[in-house]
Specification:
The structure holds two protein chains of two kinds.
Chain A lengths: L11 H7 L4 H31 L5 H7 L7 H10 L6 H13 L13 H36 L4 H15 L2 H15 L14 H30 L2 H9 L3 H31 L1 H6 L5 H11 L2 H29 L7
Chain B lengths: L1 H21 L1 H4 L32 H37 L1 H16 L2 H12 L3 H9 L4 H15 L2 H8 L4 H37 L11 H10 L6 H28 L1 H5 L3
Classes of the chains: A mainly alpha, B mainly alpha.
Chain lengths: ~325, ~270
């Protein structure tokens, strides 16, 4: 094992995952990709900050519209001062960024707790839903794409592609409503909405509703990937050598398609947290998405900002991990 | 064969929706908002009400027809804005290169990192509900793929003979972009726009469903589903038909976009996939 030029000690676990190919270069790759996320995140924060600083109705005015009578000018001035809303915009932006650099997301207008305390309990339900949806998508989508590609032009192929394009066109919250109607209201097999940390029953319907469009995408990607590999020279050679069809599929095709499929899978997991907002709202799922919708309605800007940052960060981190895994698995990709 | 099938089915469905939207005033048997017959609420589909009535006794069929107007307006107008922004940024970035290219690239990456629905939700929160806000929110948040495609096509066109000839003939930059590059990238941009109409229709429905899009009583497929959710057990048809309308519309434009892409891509035309 060569430790590369920098002399950084390399943990054995790292080698288990990434093999013994120049670990220090891989480390630098990861570090660079991590640093690359910072400007993107900064611009996201800036955009969200600017958007909400021009909001005509402030949180204070939404308090009044809820019937809590805060019309008293003194009360309003006090509230404005308490949340720092009386300071100039640039000062507020600087304060926010300064806090962010110290992992401080500010104070929620609504609950007056630190924003992180509001977001943190929502994280696990959201991640759980995204992973469960992906599990469903992979379980159905990958075999579907595979079967379709093995007999291109057949009835199964045409049917699969119709399912795939339908899945991509389906409004997922409507599909969720239909699932709710059939499996919860009519058959009574599953709870129609809500969350239970200990049981999987509540997870099934929202996960399927959320998983339909990634399932369709996976089916399409897998099919395209398998078709590509099936036409490759090494498969023709193997077939000419007399390798049996099941073995051909298993050891020549499946392995080569795996990289493509895993990439699609990973990228989908990254964007699912953002896509889940409507499903979370529909099923009263206590995740980041429903928190975001509720906070937008209440104009609880610090929480909105925090939730958007979490969603974007999740996307960026998963993307980076996919890139790293890709580079580690496929030696043709240069790690520089 | 498959190629024509996609195009024909897509075009048929899209035309069907367009006819429904344009002809809503003539086809709809009842007023979508004012005709609220509370004595006949939650009625199952019948000859008088082909799609049943909702919780306030309004005709679901009429409301679905009028909902098509909202969805199509949002889909077409927002995609027009997106295509314009994406093409302008992408072509200029690819053509000029340098710091402008870096800036546009960076902005595109940021736009891709924020899920467009989340971004649109934030903009809707600022602008307030309603059709104009929807057009702006969805028109500003879905141009990144168009921009990428316009940029990469421009990059490959820039070094080709006819563009170089225009440069040496002394054409201005804007002129070259307009007369030499734009006509050549119109195909892929059009495909992206068609596919984008589908996602804009979905996004409008989602935003209206969340209560920040089109406000009731004006019918939109999204807010009809919000109402229907409450009476799912008593009147499932009030949920089934608006959703079906969204599905058919989005499917139509997706098939149309797919078919157009296959038609434009000579590589795809010969390969039997």
């Amino acid at each position: 094992m060569k430790a590369g030029g920098t002399g950084v000690p390399v943990a054995p676990a790292f080698n288990l995952v990434f093999g013994e190919r120049q670990p220090s270069r891989m480390m630098r790759f990861i570090l660079r990709r991590t640093l690359q996320m910072i400007p993107t995140l900064l611009v996201v924060v800036l955009i969200i900050f600017v958007i909400f600083s021009v909001v005509p109705g402030s949180f204070i005015s939404s308090l009044m519209s809820e019937g809590r009578n805060a019309t008293n000018a003194d009360v309003m001035a006090h509230l404005n001062q308490q949340f720092g809303l009386d300071k100039p915009l640039l000062v507020r932006l600087w304060d926010y960024l300064w806090g962010l650099a110290h992992f401080d997301l500010g104070i929620s207008y609504r609950t007056r707790e630190p924003v992180w305390n509001v977001i943190e309990p929502r994280l696990w339900p959201s991640i759980k839903l995204a992973l469960a949806a992906m599990f469903f998508a992979a379980l159905v989508g990958i075999p579907l794409g595979f079967v379709a590609a093995l007999k291109p032009g057949s009835v199964i192929d045409t049917g699969t592609m119709m399912v795939a394009i339908s899945g991509l066109s389906l409004p997922e919250f409507w599909f969720g409503l239909l699932l709710m109607y059939v499996f919860a209201l009519q058959l009574g097999w599953l709870p129609s909405f809500g969350y239970n940390a200990d049981s999987f029953q509540h997870l099934i319907l929202p996960a399927i509703a959320l998983g339909v469009s990634p399932m369709a995408l996976l089916a399409r990607t897998t099919r395209a990937g398998v078709l590509d590999v099936m036409n490759a020279d090494f498969v023709r050679t193997a077939r000419a050598k007399g390798v049996s069809e099941p073995r051909l599929v298993r050891s020549h095709v499946a392995r080569n398609v795996l990289v493509l499929v895993l990439t699609t899978l990973g990228l989908q997991v990254g964007s699912l947290m953002g896509q889940a907002i409507v499903i979370e709202k529909l099923f009263s799922w206590p995740g980041i998405g429903s928190l975001l919708v509720d906070s937008v309605a209440a104009r609880d800007i610090p929480v909105v900002q925090g939730a958007v940052i979490v969603i974007v960060l999740w996307f960026l981190v998963i993307n980076m991990l996919v890139d790293v895994a890709y580079a580690a698995v496929d030696p043709r990709i240069k790690v520089t | 064969m498959r190629l024509r099938f996609n195009l024909v089915l897509g075009l048929t469905l899209a035309l069907l929706v367009i006819v429904c939207a344009l002809g809503a005033g003539w086809i709809a048997p009842y007023d979508p908002v004012l005709h609220a017959d509370l004595m006949n609420s939650e009625m199952p589909p019948s000859w008088e009400h082909p799609m049943g009535t909702d919780g306030q006794g309004r005709d679901v069929f009429s409301r679905v027809l009028y909902g098509a107007q909202v969805s199509l307006t949002v889909g077409l107008v927002s995609q027009l804005i997106n295509s314009f922004i994406g093409t302008a940024l992408g072509v200029s970035a690819g053509y000029f290169g340098g710091w402008w290219d870096d800036l546009v690239n960076g902005l595109t990456n940021v736009m891709l990192a924020i899920p467009s629905l989340v971004f649109a939700l934030a903009i809707m929160a600022v602008l307030g509900p309603g059709l104009p806000s929807l057009l702006i929110a969805l028109g500003l948040t879905n141009w990144s793929w168009t921009c990428r495609i316009a940029r990469s096509s421009t990059l490959s066109l820039k070094n080709q003979g006819f563009v170089q000839a225009a440069v040496s003939a002394g054409f201005g930059d804007f002129n070259i972009m307009r007369t030499q590059i734009l006509p050549n990238i119109l195909g892929p941009v059009l495909v992206m726009a068609t596919l984008g109409i589908g996602s804009a229709v979905l996004a409008e429905a989602a935003l209206s469903f969340l209560g920040v899009g089109i406000r009731p009583p004006q019918p939109s497929w999204g807010n009809m589903l919000t109402d229907a959710r409450e009476l799912l057990r008593a009147a499932p048809w009030a949920a089934i038909y608006p959703g079906l309308a969204i599905f058919i519309t989005v499917l139509g434009f997706n098939l149309l976009g797919d078919g157009m892409r296959d038609l434009l891509d000579p590589h795809m035309r010969t390969r039997k996939v």
